[in-house]
Amino acid sequence: MNKLQIFKNGVTTENPILVQQVGMCATLAITTSLINGIGMGVAVIAVLTGSNIVISALRKYIPDEVRIPAFVIIIAAFTTIIDLLMHAYTFALYQALGVFIPLIVVNCIILARAEAFAFKNGILDSTIDGLGMGVGYLVAMILLSSIREILGNGTILGLRILPEAYEPMMMAIQPPGAFIILGLLIGFVNYLSRRKNA
Amino acid sequence: MELVSLFITSFIVNNIIFMQFLGTCPFLGVSKKVNTAVGMSAAVTFVMALATLVTYLLQGLLVRWHIEFMQTVCFILVIAGLVQMVEIILKKISPSLYQALGIFLPLITTNCVVLGVAIQVVTNEYDFINNVGTANPSMMNLPQAVVFAVATALGYSLAMILFSGIREQLELSKIPKAFKGVPIALITAGILAMAFMGFSGLV
């Protein structure tokens, strides 16, 4: 598999949220505004790429039996680094994302990539896989959070784009909206991919 | 009285799945049958109560040694170890319970419900209770922590079992092909979440 293929795989064919449907918790919870979605996406890219690189570099030294605990510790270390960095430099975002930053540790995407890809492939390929999957995650976050922000607030990145007369659809930024909009989005992606295959 | 309102708040008003979205992956993954949903809920309830107690005490040590930044690493290790231990003990003491919960236990380590609740207890992020005047205003006290963990776990079980019942029915209904499986499950969960929002004025 060439490098471009690995990257493309993560962004489209195996998009972690829209196709594989893993790592939903944070996706549903923090996508109330575009800025939160981007922040979370970037944090996940950093942790995913970092842990993929380290796990791939150590794959010959980690015994098979204890690989899961080893993965978890490596991922937790990167999560802590991101947590502290965001606390220091982007405090407002840090507060908005709250408990979901430490929860990146248990995000299934990261452990799944460690197990399925980084533990079996070289450092360069794993880096590209981490970036690809991370960007795929970011794209899904941007899609979902911009839909929710436009419908629920009439704004995008805080800038008003719908006329004042638009009555914000409160439900879109409340919990039910998250479930329903993500459901519709995944259904739409399924529809597109079925049509392409047919 | 305060504990009762904390219980109701975390049980239904602030339901862990429908209002806070913690543990959505296993919620969608193992809710296809009522039986598995019951097994998973029981395992989560058990581990969550235990894990919250242990991490609560651990946080005391972390604060004393001024290494609070190690919180995430320590908590996840404790939870993983605890799950493993529960599995071993259960196998010895009650093989029948082990048979019932066995396959769900390893899954719990990566279930963000347990870690999420452990972190919420020590940071009290959602500020459920007006704990002004307590010694450490940022932390729940021990009875609050236990009540919070148990109520949250029960809320998780409630959501899980309700949803799995609906999903069994859903399997039999006619649904557009593109929406089969997860998409329709998400939309159903959205409608359930709307119902749960009705409780918001309760406490």
Question: Summed up, what is this model?
Answer:
The complex is a heterodimer of chains A (198) and B (203). With 198 residues, chain A is mainly alpha-helical.
Based on CA atoms alone, the radius of gyration of chain B comes out at 18 Å
Rounded to an integer in angstroms, the radius of gyration calculated over CA atoms of chain A is 18 Å
- What order do the strands of the largest sheet of chain A run in, or round the barrel if closed? 1-2
Report low-confidence residues of chain B grouped into runs of 5 or more: 125-137
Tell me, briefly, the overall form of chain A: globular
Compute the number of structural domains of chain A. 1
Sheet having the most strands of chain A: 2 strands, antiparallel
Helix count of chain B equals: 9
H/E element sequence of chain A: HHHHHHHEEH
Distance between the termini of chain A: 25 Å
Number of strands of chain A: 2
Biggest pleated sheet of chain B:
none
Which two chains have the most extensive interface, and how many residues on each?
A: A-B, 43 and 44 residues
**Low-confidence residue ranges of chain A:** none
Chain-averaged pLDDT of chain A: 88
Assign an overall shape of chain B.
globular
Identify the quaternary structure here.
Answer: heterodimer
Number of helices of chain A: 8
Name its key features.
A: 198 residues; mainly alpha; two-stranded antiparallel ribbon; 8 helices; 69% helix; 2% strand; B: 203 residues; 9 helices; 70% helix; 0% strand
